[in-house]
Design goal:
The structure is a homodimer of 402-residue chains.
Chain A: H1 3-10, E1 23-26, H2 30-41, E2 47-50, E3 63-66, H3 72-79, E4 84-87, H4 94-102, H5 111-118, H6 120-129, E5 137-140, H7 143-150, E6 156-160, E7 170-173, E8 189-193, E9 197-207, E10 213-215, E11 219-224, E12 227-233, H8 240-257, E13 261-270, E14 275-281, H9 291-294, H10 299-307, E15 321-328, H11 339-349, E16 354-357, E17 367-375, H12 378-394
Parallel strand pairs in A: 1-2, 1-4, 2-3
Antiparallel strand pairs in A: 5-8, 6-7, 6-8, 9-10, 9-11, 9-13, 11-12, 12-15, 13-14, 15-17, 16-17
């Protein structure tokens, strides 16, 4: 009996209509929404565990189960209808992930891998042990720990070990007094050196259960106030050596941790040119949304291929450059056009750009969509995607960031 | 009050969650399925009127209404929940399309335009009156009409005026006797000259309500037994003049008929190099499936843009060539791998190709998916897509068409 047969036998059920295994994603955000979009081409219909019927993916997927990702009962009931379980976010309690696997469900990435995207302390310790470059860091139990770590050199960066994203759970502090309010919230903290940054990069790869790896080009993630506003693919002006080093780090992390699916490794490029690993995500990631148009295989399709144990698709680029700009909802001025009118105007002004809207209510600062452009002129793509995303966010060209 | 405001006011409802108009598509086939996929990026969730929950689009869309496209009551109830109504096929009775518009629903393409894709006789008469090139033809009331039309030169082609597709409703006949069984079925017939063919082409365009047009490059549609097996984009070796003529014909048809949405004009390229219009379709069409990967704007997104009255997206190519091969279900030999295993093997062998599966039961001859490749090497793309589609159809590489 070959490996292929063994694999088929191990699948729980297969969808009786399509004859294909059923993938379930825990979380109903935009990543699940775009994964469902990719799933359709593969003959699939993504099953989604969503917290409410208004969540981004729940608005477009047929197979939506309502439930709490923090409830083991909800997770187990959801898993019972799936051949493979995967995740739209890192918020499922690690003990539940472990229990699902113990109950016989196929969970990918597995609990041991996923923990490194859920717990920054575990991640820092493991990567350090592997000899991979990470910022200088220390656990924090008290304000004194931070003071000792800083050793007079301020500011330093305090981070929540769990649960932070998009700039949340990260604080730049300039004295021990500033640490006090962060303690005692029940969230363990760590402290890191403030890295002298040239820019931030991301190396996004995918890994299959058999260990096949595929890497998209390393990208630059342009940050504003701790939130990624744009992604430039490939990272402009990056040397072949540095790009290769970033890819090597990402593939090594994927392999050592046994990741299955997409792995995004957020990197600092220090002013002296060295790379340090900042964060890990084990799911489709904002820094690779550009792959929908810019690569032969999108990160969403690739994540599905990996968790379905299909060989990975080609990550080759289809254009010299791709630029993605996030649409961060603004406060539309009085009388600003509604979303429908904004898409209308955007289409007229930028017929070459691709719009992605997530169906989310536009609370200020919330990521409600993105805009991607591909082509040969990087400067024009940066300008156009920034202008289009800014316009979509507020309906006001005055707030457009150039 | 500007045109924009008037337009917004004319929309029935807007989805309360997304603030966007609701598009409803009548018909739950693969075209609706892929239109839903494109709709997701535009912040939409396509509403689908499907005949059964097992139809291709019903397997993946959230907003599925079950009903019969031949029932006015079902159509009207469906339309009540939509801002715009459009179609996955031509089978809705023309009188129902007209009645829906009369009842105040926005129906795109409109009844007057759509009739030309539903009734070959109406289409032939109108195109002839416009001076556009069509095959020599005549209406058929009796076998004698066919005999008179042939005037001793056989074979000729008899076609059902309504309801034919994929080679159905088309008969090549070599005598009046062969016509007899086709009469009296209640379907009006017409007869056409058998055109001496170099090849078949398709010119696919889109037109917005404001009259904006956008054309993808003219493609070659490779036929076998009256069914399109592959599409080559752009049509290999086509002269700039002929390509321009084909595009001009398609844009003129779209304008003269007042089409809104995608219009596919199937063309014969005669052995003497002249073009003749064969068929019209006013919806996304098999001959433009390649646009999903091969063009900046896919036909599915473009159809939505048009019916939503958004300015059209750029139809520019993203690669020198795109080739699409249809997956026509075969009769898998005993012990052939199942669909899941076939996708697995296909992915390993052809990581650069894109698979699209429609979730349809694989009855022999049925179109259950397609495979697309983009790149610079046309011959390799033809070979690989044909082999991959053949393998996906049967699980047997012996049946692969090269």
């Amino acid at each position: 009996m070959g490996a292929e047969t063994a694999r088929a036998d191990s699948l729980a059920g297969m969808d009786p209509t399509t004859g294909l295994p059923v993938v379930g994603m825990v979380g109903g955000g935009q990543l699940a929404r775009m994964t469902h979009q990719a799933a359709i081409a593969l003959g699939q219909s993504l099953r989604v565990l969503a917290g409410s019927p208004e969540e981004s993916a729940a608005l477009v997927a047929r197979d939506v189960v309502l439930g709490a990702h923090t409830s083991y009962a909800d997770l187990a009931a959801f898993a019972a209808g799936c051949d493979v379980l995967t995740f739209d976010h890192e918020q499922v309690p690690p003990e539940h992930v472990r229990a699902l696997a113990a109950a016989g469900h196929t969970v990918l990435p597995g609990a041991d891998a996923l923990l490194h995207a859920q717990d920054k302390r575990v991640m820092r310790e493991r990567l350090g042990a592997l000899g991979l470059p990470v910022p200088r860091w220390a656990p924090v139990g008290s304000a004194g720990d931070v003071e000792a770590f800083a050793a007079g050199v301020w500011p330093v960066v305090v981070k929540a070990v769990r649960g932070g994203y998009d700039g949340r759970g990260v604080w730049t502090v300039s004295s021990a007094a500033e640490v006090e309010p962060l303690l005692g919230t029940g969230t363990p903290l760590l402290v890191e050196e403030r890295v002298p940054l040239r820019r931030e990069l991301a190396a996004v790869v995918a890994r299959s259960p058999f260990g096949q790896g595929a890497a998209w080009p390393v990208v630059e993630t342009v940050q504003r106030d701790g939130i990624c506003v744009a992604v430039l693919a490939p990272a402009p002006g990056i040397s072949a050596e540095l790009a290769e080093e970033a890819e090597r780090i990402a593939l090594r992390v994927a392999g050592e941790l046994g990741v299955v699916g997409v792995l995004a490794v957020e990197l600092f490029e220090r002013t002296d040119g060295a790379l340090l690993v900042n964060e890990l995500a084990m799911r489709p990631h904002n820094s690779a949304h550009w792959t929908i148009e810019g690569a032969l295989t999108s990160q969403f399709e690739q994540h599905l291929r990996a968790v379905l144990d299909y060989p990975l698709g080609s990550p080759a680029l289809v254009a010299p450059h791709a630029v993605m700009a996030n649409v961060l909802a603004g406060s539309p001025p009085p009388g600003a056009p509604g979303l429908d009118e904004r898409v209308h105007h955007l289409s007229a002004r930028w017929p070459h750009l691709k719009v992605h809207l997530y169906g989310k209510q536009p609370r200020p600062g919330r990521k409600i969509g993105h805009v991607t452009g591909i082509g040969a002129d990087l400067d024009a793509l940066r300008r156009d995607t920034a202008a289009a995303a800014g316009y979509l966010a507020t309906g006001s060209s005055a707030e457009v960031a150039h």
